[in-house]
Structure formats: C-alpha cells, structure tokens
User: What shape does this take?
Amino acid sequence: MKPYILGLLKNLAHPGTIVGLVISLAIPFLIYLGPNVGHKDTIRTLDLYLPLPLFIVQFIAGIVLFATLNKDFREWIKGILPEKKISILMLAFTAVITIFAATQIEARHRVQSDESVFMSVAQNMYYNQESGTCNQGYFENGNLKCVATSNSFKTKGLAFLYLLGMPLLGNDLHWIFHMELLMLPLTVLLMFLAIAAWTRQSLLAFFAALLTALQPTVLFQFRAMSVEPLYIFLSALSLLIFKWAYDRNTVRHWALLALSLAFFAQTRQETAFCLLAFIIFALPKLLDSKSAKAPTFFVTLSLFSVPALLTISYFQGFGFQGGEFEAHGHFLEDLSRNWTEMTKPLNKNGELENPFLTYFNYLFVVGAIYLLARAILGATKKNYFYLEILAFLLLYHIQTYMILENVSGDFSIQINQRYSLVMLPSMAFVGALPVAHLVQQTIASMSGKDSKQNAVTALLVTLVAGALFTAWTFHYKEDFNKNIMYNRNHLTIEEHEILGWLAEQPQKDRFFIYGRPWHFIGYGISSIHYDRARQMSTEELKNLVNKYQGEVYYIRGLDCWDSHTYHKKAVEHRIATTCDIFERDMDLEGVKNILITNNYWVQIAKFNGRKDFNPKNIIVVNEPELIQSAAGDSLSTTTALQYNFSLNEKAAVASHWIYTVQVNGSIVSHAPYTKGNFSGNVKEDQLLPGYNQLEFVVQNPKNGKIIADIQKFYFYSKTGAVKLTEIPYASHKQGWGSLHKNESIEGHNFKVDNKFYNEGFGTHAASETVFNIEGKYKTFKMAYGLDEESLCSDGVQLQVLADGNEIFNSGSFSYGKLKNLDVNIENVKVLTLKALSLKNIDCDHVDFINPALIP
Assistant: This one.
C-alpha cells in the first residue's frame, strides 16, 4: 500500500499536474473572493454574461468528444450490459411507469416561482443573451425588451436546455412538460446501467432504478418543470460516464466526465458539494501515471463549473427565506421533521398525506443497516467493495446536509418536498440492497439443476417482486389524479387557474400587470409589476391600453393578501398595501374571481388606465341620526332620519356623474354630481322597524360604472324592535373557537362579497345558539353569509328553529352575495340559530349580520 500511495504522490507532483491543480483551485477561489474584496459588481456582470458562451462551448465540446469516442462507447457498453432478460424487464417496467405518469398525472407547475424563474432566464438567454431573470418585459417584433432584470439565484443549466429547444419548439414553453416526461424513462435506464456497470449486480440495478421511479414525488416532478428531474438524470449520466472513464482511463474520457460533472453542477447550488465524491474516487486512476489526465480533468471541471460558482459567489450570505425565519442552523430539526413527513399515515380519506411511501423509508433504514454490516464484515476480510460504496454515498450527500442546514429543507412546506429528489435515488439504491439479495437467495433456493428452468425461475421471481412494488404505487392512482402532492400549494393553483382562464379566451396579444410578472414572461407573454405601472404617467398608461387594444389585465394574486396565506419559512413577501393603493387609483373592470384556497381569491380585472379622479374625494358619508324639528304650528314636532354627505371631486372630472341615495332599496334622492355638502331626511313613517339600509351610489351613466357605493345602517327601535345582539343567549356551542359579538370569528369587521358590516354575530360551523325570546316578537330578520377572512370552506347550511321546529333552511351556500331571511316567530319562546358544516369544518366562518326581533 505504501509504495502505491508514494507513486500517486509522485505523479501528483508532476509539473503539469501541479499547474492544472493550481489553475483549477484558483478559479473557484478568485470567484468566491471577488465580492469580499470589493468586486461584487464584477461577479454580477460575469454571472449575467459569461454562462451562455461557456454553456455553448461546453455543449459543443461534449458532442465532439463523444463523437470521437462513439465506437469505444459502443464496445464498452456491450461489456457492462446486464443479462438480456433483466434488461428487457427493466425496459418493460420503465415503459409502464412512463405511460402511467403520462396518463394519470397532470402536467403542471408544482414549484411555480422557481420553475418560472428557469423559464424567464431561458427567455432572456434566447432573446438577449443574458443569463439573468427577466422580471418584467415586453415581447415586441420578435424581441424581448426586459425593463427589469436581476441575477438569478437559480443555477442556469435547465434554462440553457430550454434555450436549445426554443428555435424549434417556440417561446411558449409549455413543451417543456413533454421534455421532462421524456427524461423519465431515460433517467431510469441510465440509473439501471450505471449501477449495473459499477456493481455488476443486475438485480440490484433493476430494483434501485425501479424503486426510484416509483416514488410519488419523483413521478410528480417529472410531470412539472422543476430542475430536480434534470438533477437525477445528470447524476445517473455522470455515474455511467464515470465508470466508462474509470475503465478506459484516457484523457478524452476524463475530459468528457469533467464536462458532464460541470453541467451536473448547474442543477442546484448544493450539487457542487457532491462533486467531491467523484473527485476522490477518481484520483487513483487520474494519478496512476504522469500524464495530462489529472490536469485536463481538473481544469475542465473547474472552468465549466464557473456559471454555478458565479451564482454561489454573488449570492453568498443572501437570506433566501425571508419573513421572520432564518434558514440556517435547523439541520437536526429539519431531519426529524422530514422523517415524520415522509412516514405519515394515510389521512382520514385514505389518501396519501404527502407524496412519500412509508414502506420506502423503512426499507431504506433496513438497507442502511445491511450496507453498514456488509461494509464492516467485508473490511475484516479485506474486501472493501461495500465500504467504498458507503464512503462514496457519505461524500456524495454532503450536499444533503447543505440543503437541510442552509435552505430550510423542511418537508412540511410542500414546495420543499422536491428536495427529496436529491436523496431518493441513493435511498432507493440502499433500500434495494437487501431486496436484491433476498430475491437472489429466493431464486437460489428454488433452483434446480436445469439451467433453463433456473433462468425462468429467476425471471418470474424478479417479475413478481417488481410487480408488487409497482402495483403498490399504482394503487394510489386517485391521489395522482388529484395532484395530491401540491393540492395545498396556493401559488401553483393560482397559476394553473390563470392559465386555464387564459386558455378560454380568444387568441390575442395581451399584457398583464401582476405581482410576479416573470411568470408570464416565461410563457412569452408581456408583463410588468404593479409598482412599475404606478410609476408610469397617465399618458403612458393610456398608450399601453391603446397599444394592446384594451387587452391589458390586472391580477390580484397571492402576494396581495395577508400573512395567513403563506408559511413563515417560505420564500414569500406580501405587498397587500401596494395592491390596495393600485386598485384605489386605477380604473379596473372585474372580469373573473377565482377562489383558490385558504384566505384568498385570484381576481382578474381589465385595466383601463389611471382614474382621473381621487377616490377619497368622491363621497364622504356621515352616520345618519334621528332628529326632531318643529312642525308648522310650532306646537308639535316631527321626527325624521337625517343623512349628511359631501361630494368633493372637482367639476371638470365629475360633470357627467350622478348620485343616488336609497333607503331600504327606494330612491329618496337622485341628482347630478355637484361639489358641496348635502343632507336629506327620511320621514319616521318611512322607516322600518329594525335595521334600515341607506346606500349612497355615485355612477357614471356614460358607461354604467359604479364609482362609489357606500352603505350605512340605522336601527329604528321606537316600535319595540330589538337587536338580537342585545339579548343574552341562553346557550351556545360550536366546534371551533367561540362566539364573537359584532365581529367575525377572527376578530375583524364582517366581510361578505367584499362589503363590510359592523353588527351581528361571528360563529364557526357547526354551531348552535339559543335565545329565550318569551313569545314577545312576531318577526325575525337577519342577513347571513360566509365571511371572506378565510376562503377554504366547502360551504355551510343555516337553520332557524322556533321552539325546536325548523322554520327556515338556507340549503347549502358558499361565498358570494349576502343573503337575507325574514321569518314569522309569533308566540315563539325559544329561537335557535344553527350553522351546519358540510363535508368538513375548514374555514366555516359564518356571519349573522344585523339580526333583529320585530314585535
């Protein structure tokens, strides 16, 4: 051993090797040093403009090298191919799994924000030869004009592959879904060949590749636009080329491996750390002679890893997580939580709680114990095969530590579950070890002297074992159909619904104003951010609307809602105030409201430019009050409800407007809009017992638009009417929370159909509230609805009982307009209000608004 090590060191000391090592180490060192010595702008510029030419050179060099080695590869691959029956079996299972993925899993984003970044970078590469994210831009005359560009914190390899396909397949990147699906069978077969080549155990290769492909997370990701499928593909390809280079041991082979590994490093920033495993295990071959192998390998690997190194350097120390959470320092916490998430039992509906199969994780644990035992036992007998496998895996998964330690790899956040693809192939390999060896033992115990019969037995046992694993995954077919992996991911659902709405519209050139405009840029659609639109002049906005012939749209999406819509560890920001101001200042026509899930809608509106008035000036309404005034003979008084309001907009803008005042739906005042202070009276005999609604509407009759709509309520009690909120309830029970008076269940003003109310009860279905009203009243009036503070309810039902008998049943209702009830309760002693849940109780926030008892 000592002479062998001395020989390697002697070859390492060769001048050419030393120069190569110095160059290969200097490149990452200088790149990482740059931002720390005042050259961050230099790194930023290089990160924008250097990756594309390097990728092109790398791509061409790889093709040329493989072409010169093509004959050698065909000869070598014949020598490592597993036996024909196992290979055919692998092909058959791969085809079945691919067909299942293509037919049972919808092609759609599952990590929307990250996937759209890759798409936007690809658009910028294609049109502008920049590798930054085009955050906002216009597609015009076959070009993309980016008005806001940033360095992408994602590695650029996937975007480059998209770029290669764009000249042929176009800039509407929906075709990527087909590319990712095609990668699935290629990945499975490459993994099968790579493991077979290294281990010479065809059954192990078969089960490792099969177990990898059958994991729900893997299948979902291969039907998305995520980078993780490319990661698995390139890891398998690199392992196969590594074995080829290891066996042939020439400069060209090692150069090709370096190119492959360098592109592998472009999948995730953390991937750079797993290159250490390849380098260490390649050293004995690279240094077995004084040659150009080592310097060529190291310099090539270092040079073509520059795009990833630039990204890592530019964003070093960047806090990706945002919000109140810091990503660093949660390794053990995330490891523990991820195990819990990956081994969760089925939920109450018999569905997968998460896209992980529990048996797989326990199989991995058994396999890890088995691998460790074989490694220790082998080492005692000077057989280091399994020890080497263990060492390679440990080095390879330094990257896993980096993910869990630095990027909040917490799988309770659905979008983070894709990180498991970094680990799943290795887990599948380790889990396949005891399975493959058990199958081998089973075959051996069933075999006889007839070699032909033995081959048939081996094939049948392998087929049955493989079919059992496959059937277990396939029996969750409905979970795949329902997109069980990301059915709670707000942003992916939002994008899916927006694109669904867009697909229903006639083909036109459109422009979108949105919180994440790069999502649209990625699909080849012009888009800018709310803030940029607000900064544009009135004339510029008018020209924009004219340019797109009125096809300009504003989308209020996830970012416009409050903190309840995201996980504190997620990379999200909320700009609700920006959206509110935008909607106040801009002329918008509602087109579509799409209920996404808990706590928010996607709202699509046609954008008509900036309002030419100040919304705050349109109308200001004071609270109505009951007043008394002297009658004509001055000996008596009359009572009336007086309302006061002011119209403050300048005449030049409002000259063609009209205003209307309605009381309980009847018009009491209707006149042209004129700046000034106004008041009016509603006679007492016109008031209804209980709540009276006064509505103040300003409208533009030219286009029918409602410019302002304000409502006030006045409770008229002189006839003996009583607010139900003033009567103590006899009993109350509800499934979640407690009854709230004059506010919603979460402590806000009542909000139904985007209008606010102040009086009533906020409860949570299922609930039952009982009032003793002692037969004093004849009528019960109330409005009711689902409060929009939480939007994930599947609907509720309202019942009103009089002395235990149902007198009103709303039927099921969901979000929308406020509903009214008016029921006879003459001689009723006990009034009961019941809110009933439907299938589940999530977000069943029921509002009883303006409830009144009328004698």
Observations:
- The chain is about 45% helix and 20% strand.
- Residues 320-324 have pLDDT under 50 and may be disordered.
- Residues 647 and 676 are 5 Å apart (CA to CA).
